[in-house]
């Protein structure tokens, strides 16, 4: 008898949206990305885990070109990443990024934080940008804070604003680099809930996190990185229940 698989393992098999081929990067003598090959389908949610220093942040930063690569190729929606100028600004808009530190503009209101990019980069009208921003702030549960400044919000609220700000650019893919690791424990869930909802709506997401609950709920695939390499990739169930490599077993024994 066929046993139906949990929703979390039915990964989308659509066309690839983000593709890395033979990507290598060095910081001086340090080979920080070692021949990374990776293809992420439209609508796929990929969680990246691994020890500190394994290259997870560098991988994310390479995908929105905050870092250059030394060898290989990265494409977004079939196009090589733009290198400079207006095309680079457009690329950054298409690849939304949420960092550990919320990085909101301190001297702008919450609403302004979300409308600035669409007005400057996307050339949206002020009224259209405001309306879209209000909708997004509502979606992430901070619409009541629209006229406040970042410092007046909790960490969890600020991180939800950061997500709304990235979404306002209508990105093709969202990158999250340890988005909850700077938060007080009671605020982690409110941010993860927003991310789960985003995943359910079909957003393509690359999420560096050690939140196993999120990985099990929302991820189609887990990548385990160590020493600049993707050592293992599997469904969350496979990975957490039956990690194949010694490195992964060792890592999981430390964090679980
Ligand atoms: P992770 O996010 O997995 O902790 P990172 O991608 O931040 O790992 O870093 C991978 C390695 O590259 C680490 O050893 C780190 O110290 C080094 N590194 C990261 N950024 C730089 C940089 N700008 N210059 C030199 N070394 C760096
Ligand atoms: Mg990192």
Automatic annotation (TrEMBL):
Where does it mainly reside? Answer: membrane
One Gene Ontology molecular-function label: ATP binding
Q: Which Gene3D superfamilies match?
A: P-loop containing nucleotide triphosphate hydrolases
Q: Which InterPro entries match?
A: AAA+_ATPase, ABC_ATPase_HisP-typ, ABC_transporter-like_ATP-bd, ABC_transporter-like_CS, MetN_ABC_transporter-like, P-loop_NTPase
Q: How does it sit in the membrane?
A: Peripheral membrane protein
Q: Which SUPFAM superfamilies match?
A: P-loop containing nucleoside triphosphate hydrolases
Q: Where is the ABC transporter domain?
A: 18-252
Name the family.
Belongs to the ABC transporter superfamily.
**The name this protein goes by in its record:** Amino acid ABC transporter ATP-binding protein
Organism, as annotated: Nocardioides dubius
